[in-house]
Design a protein that fits this description.
Layout lengths: L6 H22 L7 E5 L5 H9 L4 E4 L2 H10 L6 E4 L8 H7 E7 L2 H20 L8 E6 L33 H9 L4 E7 L8 H18 L5 E3 L6 H6 L4 E4 L1 H4 L7
Parallel strand pairs: 1-2, 1-8, 2-3, 3-4, 4-5, 5-6, 6-7
Helix pairs in contact: 1-2, 3-4, 4-5
Bound molecules: pyridoxal-5'-phosphate.
Pyridoxal-5'-phosphate binds next to strand 8 and helix 9.
Length: 261
């Protein structure tokens, strides 16, 4: 968005892009399903969040606590659901539970403890301020879909190769059961399902098929953990073909972001 764009022009632009994405979703979603569209507003101003709310958006996503905290406070009167989708440091948990309905990036046991402790503190803060208690925090377990088997599909490339080096966050699939047990045992947290970002060096459909298989296994143990948070601007169709219930769409609605900072 350039600073010369008027609010009315920006509204029209967002409306058109949102409509295109909604149409893509309705074409790709299996019959009888109604996936949740989370509009990822990172890097874009609170004014855009307001315009989106006016266009019927209910769910918004952010990946940095500082930015999300400020934007959610500025738009508190809109009653939106905020989804935290970025890598989360444990020391930010207390801040995140003040505004977030859901965290999609739960990837380690220490973060589960931090979020649970933060929920206790937050409920006490609300009680002290005569505010109603908040709802339980929805937790999606983020999975690293890269394959550690060097000859398997989506293998993790060696450091120095394209796509090598640090991954896109998430627990290894083998660690999911312990993580699920930990979330399920905490009264302030609700096990909502699984989340992943498709690896860059692989067909997203193949990666999302593995995520769906992990979801099936999780639901065998925890039937209520039925969420699959998957699908971004470039791969939402592939995600919907593999059971995505929550889509996280940024650039195809807001426009291109400035280069990664
Ligand atoms: C930024 C982001 C998205 C949205 O990506 P787009 O390609 O802009 O649609 C989705 N998920 C996560 C975790 C993100 O950080």
């Amino acid at each position: 968005m350039t600073s010369s764009t008027s609010p009315a022009a920006r509204r029209d632009e967002l409306a058109a892009r949102l409509e295109t994405v909604r149409r893509r979703i309705s074409v790709a979603a299996p019959a009888g399903t109604d996936p949740t569209l989370i509009v990822v507003t990172k890097y874009f101003p609170a004014a855009d969040v307001e315009l989106l709310a006016g266009l019927g958006v209910q769910d918004v996503g952010e990946n940095k606590d500082q930015e999300a905290s400020a934007k959610s406070a500025e738009t508190a009167q809109l009653g939106l659901s905020w989804h935290f989708i970025g890598q989360l440091q444990s020391n930010k948990a207390k801040s995140v539970v003040r505004y977030a309905a859901a965290v999609h990036s739960v990837d380690r046991l220490s973060l589960v403890s931090a979020l649970d402790k933060a929920m206790t503190v937050e409920q006490q803060r609300r009680a002290d301020a005569d505010l109603p208690p908040r709802a339980v925090l929805d937790c999606f377990l983020q999975v690293d879909l890269r394959n550690p088997n060097p000859s398997g599909p989506g293998a993790v490339p060696a450091a120095g190769e394209p796509g090598g080096g640090p991954g896109r966050g998430g627990a290894m699939p083998a660690d999911l059961p312990a993580l699920a047990d930990a979330v399920a045992a905490r009264p302030g947290l609700r096990l909502a399902g699984v989340m992943a970002v498709a690896p860059l060096q692989e067909d997203p459909g193949a990666a999302f098929a593995r995520l769906q298989a992990l979801s099936d296994r999780l639901r065998a143990e925890y039937p209520e953990a039925s969420g699959i948070s998957a699908g971004m601007s470039r791969d939402l169709e592939a995600a919907l073909a593999h059971g995505a219930t929550h889509l996280r769409i940024g650039s195809d609605i807001l426009g291109p972001r400035p280069a990664v900072r």
